[in-house]
Write a structure and sequence with these properties.
alpha/beta, 5-stranded mixed beta sheet, globular
Length: 405
Amino acid sequence: MRDSVKLSSGRSYLAIPGPSVMPDQVLQAMHRASPNIYAGELVEMTDTLPPDLRKVARTEHHVAIYIANGHGAWEAALSNTLQEGDKVLVPASGRFAYGWSEMAEAIGLRIEVMDFGLQAPFDLARVAERLAADTAHEIKAVLGVHTDTSTSIRNDIKGLRGALDAENHPALLMADCIASLGCDRFEMDAWGVDVMVTGSQKGLMVPAGLSFVFFNDKAAEARARVPRVSRYWDWTPRANPEYFYQFFGGTAPTHHLYGLRAALDLIHAEGIEQIWDRHETLARAIWAACDRWSEGGALAMNVADPALRSHAVTALRLPSPRATDLRMWLEENLGLTLGIGLGMAPPDSAEWHGFFRLGHMGHVNGHMIMGLLGGIETGLSALDIPHGSGALEAAAQVLAGSQAG
């Protein structure tokens, strides 16, 4: 009997929901010696980044760049606008809303979480009721996660603004777009978002390590009322630097900046509307395949309504421990890495092994998605996990239909 053959040599495919696949142009831009951080090319190039970042966020207002992950952006957004004892309202549809609320609590803010479960978006009517009851305007900010990466629920940030405006409530609207910017439609100014946070490692296609806080004039006015912000987190010099080092609170993240410049060039060459359409089409292909697989009875998508699903990440479940079995088999045998289930069950529980996620954000195209789906089909078959047939055909029909005419 011949031993089984591993097929994992060659270029691996990291299909987790961030860090995402990096374009060759980004990697090549970063492959250089350290530049001068006091004058010359790097300094001149950095001046081009904020205008192009604002185009992606669809805002005419301010942006501050931090050498940090998304947690750093969370803290920066809170520290610049709120004071100890202020209350924030946090509608939750997954683990990352809780992460932001825990950050708020840790810096002395009072938190009120409205939990809508792991399979449903914000109930805007209930949020509006809570805002209407806040007649003293104790709530100073509403923290909304656009796409919760743990559950793959896409929330209605524009609707949150509508709830605030309907009650004439002055609270700041803050949006976490870490998993959605550059993937799902987001319109900061048109939707009335006061503060938006994101990171470099997902739709922006740059290695983890940069985060961004976008803020409008209302948020800038809130910053002016805060008596003390640490020198590092203060967004004022970062958004309006007199000297180059103030962009970053010190030494620039040199190679990340070169990568970011290359990524923004790719984004603007394709066009943000086209990028949104591409992500939507690729997501629909994945869902079509998952629908077919689910006919076998074992696999299910976390979010039933397609209108509520992220176009960047899809959360799925299998009977435990089959999700972990599938992930491990694919990585070892095909060189395909899927995302772990996050926030769906305690990590030390048996149930934790029944969840996984697919990342389809940033630098992805049709053949990559078909390869991802083909790999999963292979793993389901190799492990004898019950699944329906016709998944790849269904996905192919979605992609072919998008090119019709």
